[in-house]
Amino acid sequence: KGLESFRIMEFQYLKSLLEVNKNKIILALGGGALSEVSLRYINNSYAKMIWLNTSFSICLSRIRSDGNIRPLSVLDDDELRSLYERRCKFYEQADFKALGLTEKLIEFLS
């Protein structure tokens, strides 16, 4: 059905979930969820957003190491970097930001 159909279903589901569980739920959304206007509306109306900022190199490594199970795996590195940078503009609007958290955790576990 495609990405547009998926985003419509995602919006409807998240809206109903957040309306029922206002202030009582923690959701972890995929990378593209907040790049949609409707989902930013839901976030601003019903929730606080925490951005677990992860570097492009780590995101790229995750996409490439997962093989073809991620839809974005068909994009080349330049396209992925461009997408990452566009999405960061939305994420920067988060209520709370955990910058470099992934890198610190990797360092701690090494």
Helicity range of the residues? 55-70%
Largest sheet descriptor = 2 strands, parallel
Order of SSEs: HHEHHEH
Instruction: Output the structural class.
Output: mainly alpha
Shape: globular
Description:
- By secondary structure, the chain is mainly alpha-helical.
- The chain is 56% helix and 5% strand.
- It has helices spanning 3-20, 37-46, 56-65, 77-91, 101-109; strands at residues 50-52, 96-98.
- Helix 1 (3-20) runs parallel beside helix 2.
- The longest helix has 18 residues, at 3-20.
- It is globular, with a radius of gyration of 15 Å.
Properties at a glance:
5% strand
Topology:
Blueprint: H1 3-20, H2 37-46, E1 50-52, H3 56-65, H4 77-91, E2 96-98, H5 101-109
Parallel strand pairs: 1-2
Put the structure in a nutshell:
It is built from five helices and two strands.
